[in-house]
């Protein structure tokens, strides 16, 4: 492989969702009802935890996604400023859909070992070839079911 070869692309950190006032009202009602129930049953810590969690959820729902820089080079996969060397990547999968294409990598991390990142449709084959040339194993991976549930709930 050419030592100067690299692939770069930019993508939003996550897919931005439009949330109307109804979504925020539903969040508020659910959080308040749950926390009041916790207080009635004497579980003050959990009630406070629900309120803080609901506030943070609302704040993150308002936050706009950042534009993330991705780069495949001779050393590994670089996401923002973090490098994942090829030796630490157990496997990868390029999922090509008509709607969106995604690169999955399985790393050696103990917490959340599978990382997914959006890729440009026209780069899908080139990224796959680059990973194979870097001796990374190709293994089919899919979006976790919890991600699909969260997507349907508007997160």
UniProtKB/TrEMBL annotation:
Cite the entry's keywords alphabetically: Membrane, Transmembrane, Transmembrane helix
Lineage, uppermost ranks: Bacteria, Candidatus Nomuraibacteriota
Organism per entry: Candidatus Nomurabacteria bacterium GW2011_GWB1_35_20
Does Transmembrane helix show up as a keyword for this record? yes
Transmembrane portions of the chain: 44-62
Q: What is this protein called?
A: DUF5673 domain-containing protein
């Amino acid at each position: 492989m050419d030592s100067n070869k690299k692939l770069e692309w930019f993508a939003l950190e996550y897919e931005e969702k439009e949330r109307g006032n109804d979504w925020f009202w539903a969040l508020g009602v659910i959080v308040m009802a749950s926390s009041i129930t916790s207080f009635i049953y004497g579980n003050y810590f959990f009630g406070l935890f629900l309120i803080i969690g609901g506030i943070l959820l609302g704040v993150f729902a308002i936050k706009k996604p950042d534009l993330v820089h991705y780069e495949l080079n001779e050393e590994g996969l670089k996401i923002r400023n973090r490098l994942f060397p090829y030796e630490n990547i157990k496997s990868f999968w390029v999922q090509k859909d008509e709607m969106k294409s995604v690169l999955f990598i399985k790393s050696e991390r103990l917490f959340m070992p599978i990382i997914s990142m959006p890729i440009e449709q026209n780069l899908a084959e080139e990224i796959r070839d680059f990973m194979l040339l870097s001796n990374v194993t190709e293994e089919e991976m899919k979006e976790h079911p919890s991600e699909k549930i969260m997507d349907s709930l508007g997160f």
